[in-house]
Write a structure and sequence with these properties.
alpha/beta; 8 strands; hypothetical protein PF0899 fold; six-stranded mixed β-sheet
């Protein structure tokens, strides 16, 4: 259930019962210099958020991107972004990096998550079982309903930047 919620919060298209996700509302990445690495791209996106008078406090990427970043080594075969022995929260440019399969594999989202958007949780996840629906009792069946009610508001779309590597 939380996987579906995460996908809606990031990429929901806003039609019907879908949330209007962060990525569709975010500002497009303005682009960088020729030859920029993915790490350079993230830094330029952070700067783009800052130019919109906001301060980015998080980065969302696909786990494949985080894997590639984690495996970067210097000429002496030392990992650049931390020791594999220490299980630290992944960070780039001082910001926490959240890896989720709800984000497309070659895309990113950088933003001011704490101040520019809010989630409104009207009802926690509820699971209900019933044998009273239609002829469930006679057929020895059980109906299961699971629902959650949330909403999201993006107050300042310019505080989010999304793009591709």
């Amino acid at each position: 259930m939380k996987v579906t919620e995460e996908a809606q919060l990031l990429s929901g298209n806003g039609t019907g019962q879908n949330l209007n996700g962060l990525v569709p509302q975010a500002t497009s990445y303005a682009g960088g210099a020729t030859g920029d690495s993915p790490i350079d791209t993230i830094r330029r996106a952070i700067h783009q958020v800052r130019l919109s008078e906001h301060t980015a406090n998080g980065i969302v990427v696909h786990p494949d991107f985080l894997l590639e970043i984690d495996l970067i080594k210097d000429s002496e075969e030392r990992y650049l972004l931390g020791s594999p022995i220490h299980g630290n929260q992944p960070r780039l440019w001082g910001l926490p990096v959240i890896a989720t399969t709800a984000m497309a594999s070659n895309e990113f989202l950088v933003g001011a998550f704490g101040s520019a958007a809010a989630i409104f949780d009207r009802q926690e996840a509820v699971i209900e079982l019933s044998t009273e629906h239609a002829d469930n009792f006679a057929k020895n069946m059980v109906s299961i309903r699971c629902e959650e009610r949330i909403g999201m508001a993006v107050f300042q779309p310019e505080a989010f930047v999304t793009g591709s590597f």
